[in-house]
Q: What sequence folds into this?
């Protein structure tokens, strides 16, 4: 299935003003999905229901694909969340291109959500994308067998406030609380190509780089290629 803006290079706003009725996401899927030119904003559910309302929730159990192009995820508890029922499928392909993740996350430290959380996929590829203003969690957390982040920028600072005319342009200059730029807790192959992690004016003691297998990536470098 493909969902895209009718006018090229425009944005269609999907605004959640109440918790999603499925208690999961603005768009939920368990099959192949492509979205282009959509803005997902405001997905949130109570902490008792998981506190992880997402722009897109993908629960595919087979070798499907999730392709996100020219889209924005703004002010959701989780921008994109993927993962099969078993957590052991490692078959899906996830591709994120030319997209923005702005001011996502849950201020509840017990929830600890992420801008982009990919579960047991075969591969994740992120390119030409922006991550900004993440609350507490990570910009990218990937359990995929192969993870590539290419020509993308991750700011630790927060984006502009919702009342600002620059809200969707990601000012990314005020203090933020992002924990990690890229987290690859299961290990696997990681390729970081031309990626920039900018701490801005945020908290300098936070870990803003890459963790692999729960350790700083430079300790486990044999499977990590940083070509920046």
A:
């Amino acid at each position: 299935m493909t969902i895209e803006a009718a006018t090229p290079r425009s944005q269609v706003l999907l605004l959640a003003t109440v918790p999603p009725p499925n208690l999961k996401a603005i768009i939920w899927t368990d099959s192949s999905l492509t979205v282009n030119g959509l803005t997902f904003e405001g997905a949130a559910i109570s902490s008792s229901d998981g506190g992880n309302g997402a722009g897109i929730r993908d629960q595919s159990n087979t070798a499907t694909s999730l392709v996100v192009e020219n889209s924005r995820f703004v002010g959701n508890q989780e921008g994109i969340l993927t993962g099969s029922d078993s957590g052991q499928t490692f078959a899906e392909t996830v591709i994120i291109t030319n997209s923005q993740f702005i001011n996502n996350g849950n201020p509840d430290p017990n929830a600890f959500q992420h801008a982009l959380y990919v579960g047991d996929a075969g591969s994740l590829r992120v390119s030409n994308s922006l991550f900004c203003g993440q609350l507490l969690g990570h910009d990218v957390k990937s359990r995929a067998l192969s993870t590539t982040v290419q020509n993308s920028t991750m700011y630790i600072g927060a984006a502009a406030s919702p009342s600002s005319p620059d809200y969707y342009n990601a000012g990314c200059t005020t203090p933020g609380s992002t924990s990690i730029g890229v987290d690859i807790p299961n290990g696997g192959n990681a390729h970081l190509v031309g990626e920039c992690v900018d701490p801005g004016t945020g908290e300098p003691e936070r870990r803003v780089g890459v963790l692999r297998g729960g350790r700083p990536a430079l300790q486990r470098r044999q499977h990590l290629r940083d070509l920046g």
Q: What stands out?
A: The CA atoms of residues 94 and 205 lie 31 Å apart. Confidence is low (pLDDT under 50) at residues 201-208, 215-228. Residues 9-226 form one domain. The chain has one domain: 9-226.
